[in-house]
Design a protein that fits this description.
A hairpin with a 4-residue loop joins β4 and β5. The longest helix has 15 residues. The chain is an alpha+beta fold.
Length: about 325
Amino acid sequence: MVDQAIHWLVCLRFNQADEHTQRTFEHWLQQRPEHEVAWRRVAALGNDFAGIPPQLARQTLSGARAGLRRRESLKLLGVLATVGGAAWLGRDYTPLPAMLAQVHSSTGEQRHVQLDDGSLIQLNSDSAVDFDAQRRLIRLRRGEIIVNVGATEGSAQPRPLWVQTRDGSIRALNTRVLARERDDGTLLAVQGGAVTVFPGGSHNLTGSSVVQAGQQLLFTSEGAREFRDNGLDLWSWSDGVISARNMRLSDFIDELSRYRPGVLRCAEAVADRRVSGTFQLADNDQVLALVAQSLHLRIDYRTRFWVTLSAAS
């Protein structure tokens, strides 16, 4: 519904709308009450684009409904919301639990939270968590975290720390664990000790998986499977760097895009070129320049929110 309303906003506000287009829009608007509700929400965006380049607004709204992956569309809509005070688009575009979480990080920011039990939570870029000290429970609302699980000293029976994600629960004791939301599930990695993952949230051992130190897996509410290494050091962001080993350029760019607003892409013709090295996340424009120089690429900045890498001529 929101996608259709965005389509009409692009047609009516940013293109030349003829009489036929106007009549078709009015017919769509009257078809269902939900259409009018969606239109009112999205139409408010048109009043908030003052000061934003029209081309960026048009590209962003068009991309939000077609041609961009969901994560890219959400990031661009987030840019407009920040720059222009854009109105609420509905839960598909601004997840309320993440917005209201106790602790969250902005794009490109990492944060640290020390819990009373001695555990340390590190939030990666654009992440959000809630925590319940009494239950020793962390809820990952969005993004990625690393948890250094503190020991429960003085307890006759060590208390586990639980990490709850949209795909299930993780039980950890005296270990270091990474959990990351992905479009295809929750990625889990372990350093030291072992953790137990319960897909779907049930704490029944049937269907659970034990993940040992050095292992990583991907789980959904339906089950768990081994996660195939793509050359990224999953833990490197906690040191403020992105570290790659023979990583596809396309995968590397996807990873780097998490640390900057807007869309960062590479052309299909160069997607399989390989990246190796360790790069500082504090200046991802410099990372792009270094990668472009080493792989003979051209960087096109359509705007600072829309960047594409392609083969140098």
